[in-house]
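Model the whole thing, not chain by chain.
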Amino acid sequence: MTRTRFLDKTLLAVAQVAERSFFSEEHARMKGLLQSLDVRIKLLTFLFLLVLISFLHLPLSLWCLSGAAVVLAVASRIPPGLYLVRVWFIVPLVSAAIALPALLNIVTPGEPLWVVVTLERSYTWGPYVLPQEIAVTRQGLWGGIVFIARVGASLSFAVLLTMTTRWPDIFAGLRALLVPRIFVMTLSMTNRYLFVFLRLVQDMYRARKSRTIHALSASGERGWVASRIGVIFRRSVEMSNDIYLAMLSRGYHGEIITLDRFRTSTIDHVWLVAIITLGSVLLAFERGLFR
Amino acid sequence: MHIPDGYLGPATYGTMYAVTLPFWAAASWKLNRTLKAKQAPFLAIGAAFSFVIMMFNIPIIGGTTGHATGATLIAVLIGPWAALIAVSVALIIQAILFGDGGITAIGANCFNMAVAGVFAGYGVYRVVAGAAGVQSARRWLGAAVGAYVSLNLSALLTAVQLGIQPLLEHTPDGQPLYSPFPLSIAVPAVALEHLFLFGFVEAAVTALVIRYFQKNDPEMLG
């Protein structure tokens, strides 16, 4: 029943969020290298790495960082197969598909490397030019390689961070890094109540699916989805009031007090120095200081 | 529409953080004055609602589905400043915990959807709805037009940020360093599907939810 596919897609999306959360928690509890770092140091260094990746321009530097991320995943007891699928299976692959036309001189003009097709003549429509010889250019090819390497390297560290850090620790770490308390508290509460809502969505969709013997028209189905959004908003307002009253009854008056106990150890200091050194070496290498 | 890491250069994502930061500060200041102690649970539930809206698959035609961002809907229901924070928090959670959208691109994604999207949608809604009563057709019509404008503005801003990368960030011989498509390709590629398809989906869902409230729960629109 293609007209009820939206039910399956929504249920799948909800299940994927729950699955992602469950596996992240499982890996974050293992005793590995990255799990043993102080969360503040980890957040700072991973942010540094993401910014560093955005400043690097050579594919070699970017691939080295992606390779280092795999080594770190293994040292953190994350199964390398699972990690590589999480990193490379969707975003970089989609990015590669998106970047393919940019290899050609239609998008990136430059020195032709390989002529794909030769037309009778060139064509021009406003700002668009279809050259007589459509070719892969050196600039397009290198641009594509750098683009994919950068997207992959960035995602390598973003995934590593979420797979080795418990989500409540990320929020506590943000607080320690001077992100305003109210913001961190909102993030933390959102994360908690998100799963309550997801359960609600799942129940509504399962109930609907189990009662469906014939799909409604597309407009009828849209009306049903809209009514579910309405119901969830109504529940949201009620829940917001209930939570506020529960907070008041426990002594909350708008002042947020958190129990953040962080302590750095030798491994954190070594890690910090290693990452700063790595960043400096890569930047120096890219600017030709070793030549 | 969530820009991942690696698509924007440091000049663009840095600027977008700098541009978005004052809006976050202004929203926090305003909400602190109006909501006071109720602020955290209200915004958290709003953000969770925003996150969940983005997960609803909506039937379009022939078994295909799309999903709404809900920026205008949330702005109409909880006000633009609260919606700014709620949508931002949902986007930040998506980026940090689920890898949907880049961490370096949080400033850009939040500006496109939570600042420009929310205020454009809410502004159009206010203009069309005016002082019309809760049951007036102008309410759902204004929300629909607002949602359409909001989504298309967000898409256009995303396309422009991607499209300026080859101009801003390239090697001396013309090799692009980030998103490789120029404005002449990025803008039509991103904008057209939103102008002709997803904009209407967003408008339809927003209007249907407002109509649902008009029929069943009018005090929610009060």
